[in-house]
């Protein structure tokens, strides 16, 4: 059950379509990505994802392991990002989400270090 639950969610994420992804969420659901502020509500989540997706060419998740206990799912993944120059980089991530009684996600948290995604020839790209 755990891998099936996680696979369904990551298949939607990997489709690279924020409008489809937010349909997994309750209207007032929250998404917290790394150390960024949480986005609350479908529109805010979709807007945040559009911004992030504009910085990459694509992504795909390989599930390392996943657990579902009650309404909570924890998934360790290897995420391969396609950069805008078509090169790829893989990083480890952990995602945790909770579903409400209606099956929709009420809280989703992603723990990942994206520094390798935005690095250039071994140095991290920074903006001021």
Walkthrough of the structure:
This protein is an alpha+beta fold and 128 residues long. Helices cover 23% and strands 45% of the residues. It has 3 helices and 8 strands, in the order ααββαββββββ. The strands form 2 sheets. Strands 2-1-6-5-4-3 form a 6-stranded mixed beta sheet, covered by helices on one side. A two-stranded antiparallel ribbon has the order 7-8. A hairpin with a 5-residue loop joins strand 4 (72-82) and strand 5. The N and C termini lie far apart (45 Å).
Topology, element by element:
Blueprint: H1 2-14, H2 18-21, E1 25-33, E2 39-40, H3 42-53, E3 58-69, E4 72-82, E5 88-99, E6 105-112, E7 119-120, E8 123-124
Quick recap:
The chain contains 3 helices and 8 strands. It has helices at about 1-15, 20, 40-55; strands at about 25-35, 40, 60-70, 70-80, 90-100, 105-110, 120, 125.
Primary descriptors:
single chain, alpha+beta, Nuclear Transport Factor 2, Chain: A, 3 helices, globular, disordered C terminus
């Amino acid at each position: 059950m755990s891998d099936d639950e996680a696979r369904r969610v990551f298949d939607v994420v990997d489709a690279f379509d924020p409008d489809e992804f937010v349909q997994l969420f309750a209207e007032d659901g929250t998404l917290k990505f790394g150390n960024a502020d949480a986005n609350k509500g479908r529109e805010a989540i979709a807007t945040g994802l559009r911004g992030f997706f504009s910085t990459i060419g694509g992504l795909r998740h390989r599930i390392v392991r996943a657990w579902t206990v009650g309404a909570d799912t924890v998934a360790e993944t290897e995420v391969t990002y396609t950069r805008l120059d078509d090169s790829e980089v893989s990083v480890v991530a952990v995602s945790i989400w909770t579903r409400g009684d209606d099956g929709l996600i009420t809280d989703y948290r992603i723990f990942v270090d994206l520094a390798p995604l935005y690095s250039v020839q071994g140095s991290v790209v920074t903006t001021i």
